[in-house]
Amino acid sequence: MRHRPGIRGKVAVPDSPNIPKRLIPAMPTRLPFRIRARNAVAALPFPDRPAIQTYSGRVAIYQGLLALGLGKGDTVLVPAYACGSEIDAVLKAGLEIRFYPVDNNLRPDMEVCNDILAQTPFAKALFVTHYFGFAQPIKALREFADKNNLRLIEDCAHGFLSCDANGTPLGTSGDIGVFSYMKGLPLTDGGACVFNRSDIGATQDTLRQANIRKLAGRFLFQVERSLETVAPWAARIFDKGVRSPLRALKNIGKRQAVKSHVIGGSTGSEEMGILGLDLVQADWAISKIARATLSRLDLTRVRDIRRRNYELLLPVVNALGNVRALFPELPDGTCPLFFPIEIDDAATVQRELATQGLGTKYFWSYFHDRFPRDEFPFEAALKTRVLVLPVHQDLTAQDMAQVGEILTRVMQGRVVG
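and the corresponding structure tokens:
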């Protein structure tokens, strides 16, 4: 018997392998088909403090660094376990980087940070990442930053809707807090930089409108995926009547672009193009498309479902001997972005899970050119060993049962290390 999906409830991993196979996506795509807005985007993430709504999280970092008055010759302490996007944004703002290690719980190694400060006279800021929506010890980090006359930058790209153990929203303790809405919401783009000091800040009118043409394909894909969940026939009509003709036009443009690219030569790797900060976009605001979607999302429901889904998956992951949950408990106030696990041969496991119908992300596998792998073996290993399982708001309790069953089947078929 199938139960109606809800926010509450418990689910066990089914004994039968005969679960209907459908792709469980790694990311949410379901758009809110709602006429009236729920949220005032200009007031996000927090209505009681100023913020600018940016095109992306990396644009938020870049603009935040400018607002802090940091410039050429200044150094920022950045965690060695990093995506690469934030590194690129810091470097393109003209700053230098010193990496610091994290411990097994992904918390900053403060002793090493002290040593770095003793050797770095131009250190001006401490960059802290709230990984996967789980709070860092932000009170202690705030005290450390104040003691050493450092600006504190809270990277909340994963932490939208999360609080720490005291109920303090992530992004409100640093000098600035930076967000990337599109990490966990079905948006074409969108980020924010929050200013928590009266002597720093910027205004929305300093940003330019985003180029919507670059976002149309992504938005139309989200529309089709959303229609599939409510009216598959409408999704098929939408694909044939809208997306297919536009794809044909886009392919013509791609062929022309290839000719131009051959003449002009290559400029950087494909990964850098995806993860790096394009300075053309460094002053772009959130697009009107993303604003319209964000204003209509039920953010309370998003948080509640993500927490429920994480809790449903916890006993399944904790029972597997060859899987380590990076966060084996879900603290109060945490809105998890994913369920991150550390495993051997993550790339192969990802492919095996995909053949079973489970979409995952091989997380942060890209290494920025400036990252010294040999100096940080633990963080370098994490970038090759972490997969993230979906817990997003499009998934029901039944979906999470299927996630657990697929993960268990695949991992029990592998030798425990």
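(Above: one complete record from the training split.) Residues 64 and 214 are 24 Å apart (CA to CA).
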